[in-house]
Amino acid sequence: MAQSDRELAMDAVQDSDVREERRPRSELLYGLTDKPPVAESFFVALQHVLAAFVGIITPPLIICSGLGLDATNTSYIISMSLFASGLCTFIQCRKFGPVGSGLLSLQGTSFAFLGPILGVGTTAIQGGSTPQQALALIFGVCFFGSFVEIILSRFLHLMSRIITPVVSGTVVMIIGLGLIKTGVISMAGGPAALARNDGSFGSVQNLALSGLVLLLVVFLTLSRNRFLRMGAIVIGLAVGYVISLILGIVDFSALSQLPPVTLPIPFRFGMRFEIGAFLPFILLYVLTAIETVGDLTATSAVSGEPVQGPVYMRRIKGGVLGDGVNSAIAAVLNTFPNTTFSQNNGVIQMTGVGSRYVGFYVAGIFAVLGLLPIVGGVFQALPQPVLGGATTVMFGSIAVAGLNIVASAHLDRRAMIIVAVSLAMGLGVLYAPEIFADKPPMIKNLFGSSISTGGLTAILLSWLLPHNSARTEEEVEA
Questions:
Q1: Which residue intervals make up region (Disordered) (predicted)?
Q2: Which of 62, 74, 254, 354 has a beta carbon 3.0–4.6 Å from 303's, enabling a disulfide?
Q3: Using CB atoms within 10 A of its CB, is residue 365 exposed (0-12), middle (13-18) or buried (19+)?
């Protein structure tokens, strides 16, 4: 019996001994350690792939476009994002020693790092670096930043005292609100159209196409059919792609330059490190760890596994450790930080299959797709208005998710002050980034990011503001 299987068997015995709460197994066709037949496993795995695919490829698409990377390198990075997701999903589901949760948990490229990565890359290019040199810096700070999450995985029980729901929810709101600007620019034609200044940016065609995709995604998301809801983004992109082909605005010229197979080349773009560029990523890895705890808790619940007790905490710590290790692996493979995806929890609920062995099939599918550059090339050719129409909805959803986190906490006057000031500071530097134009690079990188500015403000206020300041006059008189 494999080591991970023995550990899971021991976990099951401990679960029975301590009689921890579980969801009724009758809701599941296959539990965590069950092995569904190959055909069923593959079919369920395809649904997980479809639910997570767009979320994995969208961040590299946006980053490569923002940095002005050529089509060949863009396709390569998209391919490596898929390959890394496959490898990292296998690590998370298979569990190697303390690394991994052992749950049916998918790994994919994180949206949380999108803004700071674009900020660091743009600043580097403005300073005279090439896009490839900017990528080396990005991968360097992402690699070393992953050790923040690796270390934090050992101290998860202390994090809730520092990062409260008000703090984490506010930062997630800032992430979503900040990304909306990126989505709207894509709807109008993308950074390239804006830079050309040839009248194509914001054209009627671009706005009509992106608006159609946006409306389609909205209507499908509201559908009562769960398959249509889960596939809303994919369907919206597919319809937009077909219309773009009819309009003749899809450029497939770069596909002929792609090799039939792409093999991973560690450190292909090199790796650089600058402390000023690194600082904003510290907070992001902390928040990613917190997000992973929530996602893994949800996965445990829908898989009929405990959501409290020693087995649960060991899985959570292993999952967050896996996130950190996987983000380091992603940087080595020339792609961006990986995190635990929440999309697959809906698939588990829908299919009734919580078996971690399905994750092995998911990992294999992603890895194979990553080795085929034609997949990355096809998506690299996706017109910006189509991408913008779908991602703007996604970015708005991130902001709403942050709002829900904040609303779940008790909103007294102290909490409202923390949210108000943090939003003002974070979005303020997003709206007026020129205030740091003449500042040293370290200050520019740290406070030029809306996430780091807003997040640091929220943490400091949560730490410094006295709790009794929220008491009402009636409470004081009583």
A1: 1-20
A2: 354
A3: buried
